[in-house]
Amino acid sequence: MTSSISAWIWSERFWLPENVSWADLEHPPPGMEYPRMGHILYALPLAVGVFLLRLIFERLVAKPCAHILQIQAGVPRRAQPNAVLERLYQSKACPDTRQLEGLSKQLDWDVRKIQRWFRIRRNQDRPSMQKKFCESMWRFTFYLGIFIYAIRHLWVSPWMWDTKICWDNYPFQPLSPGQYNHYVAELAFYWSLMFSQFTDIKRKDFIIMLVHHLATIILITFSYANNMLRAGTLTMCVHDASDIFLEAAKLANYAKYQRLCDGLFVVFSIIFFLTRLVIYPFWIVNSVLFESWEIVGPYQAWWLFNGLLLVLQTLHIIWFYLITRIAIKAIFKGKVSKDDRSDVESSSDEEIYSSCSKNPSQTLKTKDSSHTGNFNGETHDH
């Protein structure tokens, strides 16, 4: 039963071009090695190591840096314990007018007092600036390190300058140590993000990021098994380039270096546009979609890979729309506005009441009263 399921999952007719079998890839010429699925499985235990390394890094490196920059964790004021309000808060953080009036009668509290309780309670769950700083510093460090490693190997690779070489003698292309290390490191990192996504600061595009991480993990895993390493390493390198400047902009923002933050955000926006809306679709996707069709020819898995690449491109367009909104706000406000993806933060009682009354079904949109108009969220991608 198990062997039949495995044979169905790893069907040669699905994963490999015509007249190529898994047995052909198991016996490379002397001195060469082809990718094997068993190799990439090391990324799973390594992902746990990456997650633990992140915890150590945040504690021993990021937090001391935050203290040097005078970014404090902050201890939010705690709401008065109340079982009735707490029960409602767990299901709805912003009660509507009818619910407020009902609570007022039930508890014999003034409506304003109940509104204030919910504001303080929301602040308890609001992540501190120091936590945000530590998360961003970890991602900045990884993206910078892996990008330098990738560009160092790709710079001397002929397929970086002529993408048609990605398909020369495909799939019988040798695996280099640089390609293997790059793949395992990226896959372990994205698996660690899958683990930590449920404990990190939760933002409005949680579902989009979940889809992004799943699509990325599937692409990395199966492109390795299918020996699309040349196009795969190019894709990962292009994605990491803009993320470096995004995380750097957020670090500058959390440290309250507003001009540096604005400058880095401009650089990030330009690089994001060039890498993900120009280079990625017109260079990499064009190669996988059209050049591979001419040289190798389509097969069943080929359609899957191209579909996933187009999913990523759709996400790039959505994110660039959000980036454009921030840029437009910056033109009128003179500095980078708060990211539309940022975590929900508190405001004054008047703003809360006004927001909830106008549209009780929506999540409260507010501003950070202590750091108004800053770039508090993130616009990923990995």
From TrEMBL:
It catalyses: sphinganine + octadecanoyl-CoA = N-(octadecanoyl)-sphinganine + CoA + H(+). GO terms for molecular function: DNA binding; sphingosine N-acyltransferase activity. Coiled coil: none annotated. The keyword ATP-binding does not apply. Keywords: DNA-binding, Endoplasmic reticulum, Homeobox, Lipid biosynthesis, Lipid metabolism, Membrane, Nucleus, Transferase, Transmembrane, Transmembrane helix. It is found in: Endoplasmic reticulum membrane; Nucleus. Its main location: endoplasmic reticulum. Residues 131-332 form the TLC domain. This is Ceramide synthase 5.
